[in-house]
Amino acid sequence: MNDLLFLHFNSIPMEHKNKFFIAKNTPLRLTPDEIGQPMEVIIPFFNALCLDEAREILWEVFSRAIANPEEDEPDWLSRRDLLYFHGQFEALIEASFLIYRETK
Fold it and tell me: How many structural domains comprise the chain?
């Protein structure tokens, strides 16, 4: 990651609206087995989606978040699909974090 972008990203306050959010660098979505073997999350994620598909869905998620909420959804991706992808992407982030933490 570019140093300037990294510095900017770290300066963004990461406050959660949910007052009951208590997990500090602790996976919430992973099972105990997945926490022990984070590659068991990463491999199925990329078996289901290629990198370009994951990027495209991620773009849809973020662009819809800032676009007109009344805009029609594309035929190929429903709101249910977006919610499912969110959970899968969150698990991917948690698994990646665990692998990152092991390298420190």
Answer: 1
DSSP, res 95: H
Find the angle CA(85)-CA(89)-CA(90) to the nearest 5 degrees.
Answer: 120
pLDDT digits (tens, 9 = 90+) for 50-100: 888 888 888 887 777 667 566 665 666 777 887 888 888 889 999 999 998
Task: Enter the DSSP assignment of 38.
Answer: T
Which H or E run contains 32? Answer: helix 32-36
Euclidean distance between CA atoms 87 and 81, whole angstroms = 10
Per the structure, the complete domain to which residue 14 belongs is given by 3-103
pLDDT category at 6 given cuts 50, 70, 90 is: very low
